[in-house]
């Protein structure tokens, strides 16, 4: 069977499974729609949480980041997994015992403020739209390559699938669909990694294979894989693949700040937190975090090996070859526009650090073809050694570089698009067609699982926290459910539009989303649980200060050329400073304002009591005697 036939089979079977689960899990009440009736077992919730978190970014992009960044890419592994430790210790069990539906629910009730609830809703909706737009685009990329349909058609298909099972079953349907999607995506990620590890190093465990010598008739046989990558990087002018802190951008302070921002951002993301509302007990919420971290580790501990294998194959299979000698994988992906090369006249492909705007494209092009390609793929052109004014983004203009080369760059792209690394690696390694197709099914499962969770956060934020809590508290159950489903429909359309017409700053906004969660939700949730003294005004002021500082820094740095004036901390890590600002403002203002009401303080005591503790009244009565 061809790769296309295998892809249709795997994708078709997985989609049928998702639709069947959604049909069997359909709900008719808001409890089932928002929190799956609070009846999900801890281990199943752990799988669903893992699938919800491991989005297209984790499945498709993370290994690509590590492949191109080397050691520095480890910040994503540490940050994204470390956030679950914070969730398990500081947030999940307490929010579950609070017993409501959403994160804005807790913030609004704990701080007794409609303004706090509204700010929380806006933050949750904004963060969710940022992520869901990326998932929709990821669906389109997978469909474009493996099913040979237009990217926009792929986005529309993804929209339809998510809309059906998200509106039918709500959180209940999404949860059990995500359980199935976890096994699809983890199988699709591990099988190619194991096969490539055996082929390159003879080791069945990719984690061991990454640190083993190359075997067989591959280039560099007998040399350790990581030593070979260091040698390749040195030959091409890149920094060492395995050495830490090789550039000012990824110095010790930046690595610390980015890692911490990703950790607290993860712990503050509403679509992750809401998963812990679906279990039966507080103990189950803790176990859910344990199981989620365990299931996530299966992919995250394999990603560095996949990244190393991909970098080896990507460079060795094309470096110095003429267009007639290119492997088939290159031709396949070239059609998507995600891997491009502009020949400098000698007919051979080279990848080097000499020009960080360089991307792959086979064959020489005329100026007219260059302009047409630039327009079709939203590319911009510059000289081989010069910098580019961001105001010229998207414009086709050519100049000659120091070596006479015309460099063609896609926005945010240096070399091959990082999003193709995982998807293309099985083809680079010339694995069987069914393994290549399995990757497509896994990528779609990762994107769709996260998209559905994010859409539910948007729906609950608008229908429950905004409509029911602030606009129409007398709304019936049926009315609230109808508004929830209608909101998902609108959100799917908006997400699809972003997927079809992605804004040029999507990559930058991802960093903004993490910074926003780190500097707003995390501090206000932690203080709301562990401090009975923090009142409404300090909390709202701290949240607005954290958001304001983080947003101003990221927007100024990314879009207006503002230098990284805060100790050289990058926009990706500034959420750490924003979090500190939030804590400082909140705690600094607290002594000057009244504490929360007695009812709120009693609520804090209640959610912090161990499950098997006797009631507070009984304790007091016993002490009197």
Tag the structure with descriptive keywords.
single chain; Sodium/glucose cotransporter; disordered C terminus; 2 domains; two-stranded antiparallel ribbon; 625 residues; mainly alpha
How would you state the average pLDDT, rounded? 77
Briefly note the structural class of the backbone: mainly alpha
Largest sheet: 2 strands, antiparallel
CATH superfamily of the largest domain: Sodium/glucose cotransporter
CATH A-level architecture of the largest domain: Up-down Bundle
Helical amount:
55-70%
Number of domains: 2
**Distance, first to last CA:** 81 Å
- DSSP strand content: under 5%
Q: What series of H and E elements makes up the topology?
A: HHHHHHHHHHHHHHHHEEHHHHHHHH
Number of helices, where a helix is a run of at least 4 consecutive DSSP H or I residues: 24
| CATH structural fold name of the largest domain | Sodium/glucose cotransporter
Q: What is the CA-based Rg, rounded? A: 25 Å
- SS elements, strand count: 2
What global shape is seen? globular
Strand arrangement across the biggest beta sheet: 1-2
Low-confidence stretches are: 354-367, 373-415, 613-625
Query: According to CATH, what is the class of the largest domain?
Result: Mainly Alpha
Can you describe what's shown?
The N and C termini lie far apart (81 Å). The chain has 2 domains: 3-311 and 423-502, Sodium/glucose cotransporter, CATH 1.20.1730; 340-415, no CATH class. The chain has 625 residues and is mainly alpha-helical. It is globular and about 75 Å long. Strands 1-2 form a two-stranded antiparallel sheet. Residues 354-367, 373-415 and 613-625 have low confidence and may be disordered. The chain has helices at residues 3-24, 30-35, 42-53, 56-69, 74-98, 103-110, 114-147, 151-201, 206-209, 225-236, 252-267, 270-273, 282-300, 303-316, 328-334, 367-376, 421-428, 433-471, 477-500, 506-530, 536-559, 574-589, 598-608, 616-624, and strands at residues 379-383, 406-410. The longest helix is centred in the N-terminal third of the chain and has 51 residues, at 151-201.
């Amino acid at each position: 069977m061809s790769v296309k036939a295998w892809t249709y089979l795997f994708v078709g079977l997985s989609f049928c499974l998702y639709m069947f689960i959604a049909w069997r899990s359909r709900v008719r009440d808001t409890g089932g729609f928002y929190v799956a009736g609070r009846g999900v077992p801890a281990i199943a919730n752990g799988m669903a949480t893992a699938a919800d978190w491991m989005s297209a970014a984790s499945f498709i992009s993370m290994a690509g980041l590590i492949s191109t960044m080397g050691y520095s890419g480890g910040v994503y592994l540490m940050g994204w997994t470390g956030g679950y430790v914070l969730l398990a210790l500081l947030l999940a069990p307490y929010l579950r015992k609070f017993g409501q539906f959403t994160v804005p629910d807790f913030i609004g009730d704990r701080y007794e403020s409609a303004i706090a609830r509204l700010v929380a809703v806006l933050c949750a909706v904004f963060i969710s739209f940022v992520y869901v737009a990326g998932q929709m685009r990821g669906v389109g990329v997978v469909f474009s390559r493996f099913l040979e349909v237009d990217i926009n058609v792929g986005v529309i298909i993804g929209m339809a699938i998510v809309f059906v099972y998200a509106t039918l079953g709500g959180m209940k349907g999404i949860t059990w669909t995500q359980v199935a999607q976890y096994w699809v995506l983890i199988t699709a990620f591990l099988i190619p990694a194991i096969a490539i590890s055996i082929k390159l190093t003879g080791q069945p465990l990719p984690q061991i294979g990454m640190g083993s010598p190359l075997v067989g008739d591959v280039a560099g046989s007998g040399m350790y894989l990581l030593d070979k990558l260091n040698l390749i990087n040195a030959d091409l002018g890149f920094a060492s693949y395995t050495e830490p802190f090789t550039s000012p951008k990824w110095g010790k302070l930046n690595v610390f700040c980015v890692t911490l921002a990703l950790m607290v951002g993860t712990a503050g993301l509403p679509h992750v937190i809401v998963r812990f509302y679906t279990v039966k007990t507080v103990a189950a919420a803790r176990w859910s975090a344990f199981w989620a971290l365990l299931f996530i580790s299966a992919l995250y501990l394999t990603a560095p090996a996949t990244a190393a294998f991909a970098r080896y194959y990507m460079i060795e299979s094309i470096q110095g070859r003429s267009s007639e000698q290119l492997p088939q994988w290159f031709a396949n992906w070239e059609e998507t526009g995600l891997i491009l090369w502009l020949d400098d006249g000698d007919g051979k492909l080279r990848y080097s650090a000499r020009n960080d705007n360089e991307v792959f494209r086979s064959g020489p092009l005329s100026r007219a073809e260059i302009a047409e390609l630039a327009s079709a793929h939203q590319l911009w052109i510059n000289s081989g050694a010069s910098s580019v004014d961001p105001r010229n983004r998207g414009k086709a203009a050519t100049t000659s570089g120091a070596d006479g080369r015309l460099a063609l760059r896609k926005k945010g792209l240096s070399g091959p698009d990082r999003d193709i690394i995982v998807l293309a690696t099985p083809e680079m390694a010339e694995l069987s067609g069914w393994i290549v197709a399995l990757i497509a099914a896994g990528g779609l499962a990762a994107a769709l699982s996260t998209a559905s969770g994010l859409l539910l956060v948007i729906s609950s934020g608008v229908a429950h926290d905004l409509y029911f809590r602030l606009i129409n508290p007398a709304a019936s159950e049926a009315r609230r459910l109808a508004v929830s489903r209608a909101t998902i429909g609108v959100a799917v359309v908006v997400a699809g539009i972003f997927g079809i017409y992605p804004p040029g700053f999507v990559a930058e906004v991802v960093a903004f989303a993490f910074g926003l969660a780190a500097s707003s939700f995390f501090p206000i949730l932690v203080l709301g649980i562990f401090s009975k003294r923090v009142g409404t005004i300090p909390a709202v002021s701290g949240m607005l200060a954290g958001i304001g500082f983080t947003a101003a820094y990221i927007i100024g740095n990314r879009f207006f050329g503002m230098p990284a004036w805060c100790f050289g901390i990058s926009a990706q890590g500034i959420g750490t400073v924003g979090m500190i600002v939030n804590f400082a403002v909140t705690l600094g203002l607290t002594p000057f304002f009244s504490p929360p009401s007695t009812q709120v303080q009693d609520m804090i005591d209640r959610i912090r009591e161990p499950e098997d503790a006797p009631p507070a009244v009984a304790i007091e009565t016993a002490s009197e005697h």
